[in-house]
What does this fold into?
Amino acid sequence: MNEDEIEGAVTRNLFRTDSDSSDEDDSVIDPIKENSRFSGTRATLRREVLHVTLEEKVGEVSIAQQLWPAAEFLARYILDVAESLETQASIDLNTHVSICSRENEQRSSAFRALQEALESKNSEKAAPIIELGAGLGLTGLEIATQLSVHVLSTELEEGIPMLKTIITVNKSAFKLGEKAVEAQELMWGNKAQSQDALLWYERVCGGVPRPLVVLGSDVVYWEELHDPLERTLYDLLSNTPPGSICILAGMRRWKSDTSFYKTLGKRSRTASHELYCSLLKEDLRRSEGSRQIMRIYAVQWVEREAKKAKQANGKIQLGFQ
It folds into this structure.
């Protein structure tokens, strides 16, 4: 899929509704229906801290202007991990759940990497955060009000004006000051825009190498966007120091959601490295006769197992070109 095809896929899905999908899992809630209750003139999230002004009307909801169900779930998880560093409290890694081989070892490694990235949360040495598909920016905003971190909230061009407005409304609450959170366009699969995000990362690092934390809530949404999303994860994680990590949160809606995580890395791996996915947490919630499965995944750019790397050497392309 080239950049023109990717842009077309994104554009087609900007105002897509639940009636356009035939692969919906009837055990879960559709995201557009779930989010429609947030449409209106004003909503207050985490009322003592965050204020979000909504300008869209019911029936005119763009995926670039969504308050995604997993946004708060992801923010809470990151804050819980950060808090566990102070309290020495344990975090449940759901070790009974496994979706791929060497999972338990990699899950523990991913969790340690996230802890280390957040360990300096009370200084400007903490890992910068890039949020993909930020929507209304809730995840990054909530984290920035609680932790001393720099956050880059990224979205499609259509979502940037509202995102900037919401950031401005909340800027006085950021622990690192009013400029701690910025908004920038990043269309998945667009290498130039990924490079722009990396330039932001280098700027806030100030020449001191630090891991990068990438966040995404409900980003595994339509199957035709899986490839561009993987391209962006590859661009960000393969060009930042070891210890960089992506944390994805999502509410399972369609069977294709799981297939993305199972196949992640096959398109981007090199002879020596690959994107590796680990399931960190799973919550099952029931309400009003329906069930919600909420999951947290970690994605890292890691060295391939020696045997597999040797077998693949010279037989696969070197990542996305």
Notes: The radius of gyration is 19 Å. The beta strands are 43-45, 50-52, 129-132, 151-155, 181-185, 213-217, 245-251, 273-287, 290-303. The longest strand covers residues 273-287.
